[in-house]
Amino acid sequence: MKVFTTAKEVKEHYRVCVLRLPGFVPTMGALHEGHLSLVEAAVKSSRMAAVSIFVNPTQFNDPDDLLKYPRTLEADLQMLSGLLRENDFVFTPTVEEIYPEPDTRVFDFGDIERVMEGLHRPGHFNGVAQVVSRLFEIIRPSAAFFGQKDYQQLTIIRELARRDFPKTENVACPIVREKDGLAMSSRNYRRLLRHRERAGEIYRTLIAAAAMTSDYETSEIKEFVADRINMIPDFRLEYFEIVEDVTLTPVRAAIEMSPHKTYYGCIALFAGDVRLIDNIEIRLR
């Protein structure tokens, strides 16, 4: 594999290889098995694969969170070396390379960004759109691979691609979980410590909530999730919503749900001071 730090190097690599439009996996590093599953999918489906490692400052609304985000570049490159082929590459740009000037663009994705994460992390999705659009401009991928753990983010990137990068297919890949069901996340390795052994209860709660949708009101399900999460010592629910899969419209009452549609139960919570998100697909029986 090759490692590049500038857009000029990427462009030159395309010229030499006479291969264009790679399968692309954008990451912020601190790689785990979830990331590697995306890389494997890109390698399998594309003649060339590209992985970016870049901690994007514009999508952090908490400066302390940005400062503490894990950075493990050498370990990440070692992991990728076992998966990527000779002409595949890793793009590890500096902030100055991605943003040679301050990025003042403002994106509006309508209602899909005004629920859940959009309410609790103002400006987050604008930063996501800024960096993904810059990476897509540089990498020019035929397909980009994303995990479904950040389901709202995936939905917004699909809309961004539909508007501005119609030649790029966005491929959703299943969530990769720990043995106890906890969705793999770079944040899991940061400060979970004594909360880790209880974190499997998050996914068990989602499974139970999904099973309730055919027989209980939405308000009852939300109350169940809140009670179950908040009873775990030092855990605190931020939100749980059942949303329609495309529009992300929150379901307010059971009568709004259709057996012909797909829904997602999306959750955000704090385990101590570590914020975790997860989701589960829901279909009425």
Explain what this protein looks like in three dimensions.
With 285 residues, the protein is α/β, with parallel strands linked by helices. The protein contains ten helices and nine strands. It has helices at residues 7-17, 33-45, 63-68, 73-81, 95-98, 117-120, 124-139, 151-164, 201-212, 218-230, and strands spanning 2-4, 23-27, 49-53, 89-91, 143-147, 169-173, 235-244, 263-271, 274-282. The strands form two sheets. The protein has a six-stranded parallel β-sheet, sandwiched between helices. A three-stranded antiparallel β-sheet has the order 7-8-9. β2 (23-27), α2 and β3 (49-53) form a beta-alpha-beta unit. α7 (124-139) crosses α8 (151-164) and α9 (201-212) packs antiparallel against α10. The termini are far apart. The relative contact order is 0.13. The model has no long low-confidence stretch (mean pLDDT 94).
Alpha plus pi helix count? 10
Helix content: 25-40%
Largest sheet: 6 strands, parallel
Which structural class matches the secondary elements? alpha/beta
Ranges with pLDDT <50 over ≥5 residues? Answer: none
Strand order of the largest sheet: 1-4-3-2-5-6
SSE string, helix = H, strand = E? EHEHEHHEHHHEHEHHEEE
Cα gyration radius (Å): 19 Å
pLDDT averaged residue by residue: 94
Give the N-terminus to C-terminus distance in angstroms. Answer: 47 Å
Q: Count the beta strands.
A: 9
Q: Per DSSP, what share of the residues sits in E-state strands of 2 or more residues? A: 15-25%
Shape: globular
